[in-house]
Amino acid sequence: MRFILSAPFHTAPPNPAFLTGDAIAGLARAAEDAGFWGVAFTEHPAPPEAWRATGGHDALDPFVALTWAAAVTTRLRLLTNLTVLPYRNPFLLAKTSATLDRLSGGRLVLGAGVGYLEGEYEALGVPSPSATPASTRRCVCYRSPGPARSCPPRGPRSVPSRSGRCPRRCSNRTRPSGWAATAR
Q1: Assign residue 161 a region: left if phi > 0, alpha if psi is -120 to 50, beta otherwise?
Q2: How far apart are CA 176 and CA 106, in angstroms?
Q3: Crossing angle, helix 62-71 and helix 90-103, to 10 degrees?
Q4: 103 with 67: CB under 8 angstroms?
Q5: Distance, CA of 46 to CA of 69 (rounded, Å)
Q6: N or C terminus: which one in the chain shows less Cβ crowding within 10 Å?
Q7: pTM of this prediction exceeds 0.70
Q8: Cα separation of 114 and 121, whole Å?
Q9: Per-residue pLDDT of the chain (184 residues; tens, 9 = 90+)
Q10: C-alpha dihedral over 90, 92, 95, 98, to 10 degrees?
């Protein structure tokens, strides 16, 4: 059995004691020392006030927080729980994910889904899955940072680049692990 420590931000507003680099580092070190398999951070860049008032919560950017955790640990898995694909440009998400995975020695586990907070979609200016079912079909390719090469779209689920270019495949042997969730 594997245990994952989820960052303690499930209140609104979050406890300010947990919103420092020292706190994230301490949490990650403590989780690794206690034998946890991983640490997880969720994504809510713009949670609606009504949701926060009825049990919702704020969140740090998961990629920044996980990078902070990666810097002070050596074996702890780094999980997004979960990143909402339509909130992020797929190419930037791929580059961010591949960078974190590479710098952490292959420890990223990318949890991905389509989200459910209509107000958050509205605040971010992106169509919600209920308004645009195609937004649920975004595909993220795992690529490392580096020089671009020609990369034609592959199939109906790919997201074509306007320039026809994409990052080069990672030369190391690690690739991010992942899991996916569906909308409610």
Answers
A1: beta
A2: 6
A3: 10
A4: yes
A5: 23
A6: N
A7: yes
A8: 10
A9: 999 999 867 777 878 888 899 999 999 999 999 999 999 999 988 888 998 888 888 888 999 999 999 999 999 999 999 899 889 988 899 999 999 999 999 999 999 888 888 899 999 998 887 765 544 444 444 444 444 444 444 444 444 444 444 444 333 444 556 655 544 4
A10: -60
Nearest alpha-carbon partner for 177 in 69, 37, 21, 59 = 37
Q: Which of 24, 174, 41, 28 is nearest to 99 (CA)?
A: 174
Residue 96: name the closest of 78, 114, 113 by CA.
78
Residue 94 to residue 107: CA distance in whole angstroms: 15
Kindly state the tokens that stand for 29.
């070190």
In the structure encoding, which two tokens stand for residue 30, read together? 């403590």
| DSSP letter (8 states) at residue 10 | -
Instruction: Pick the closest to residue 63 from 136, 116, 112, 12 (CA basis).
Output: 112
Q: Which two tokens stand for residue 128?
A: 């919600």
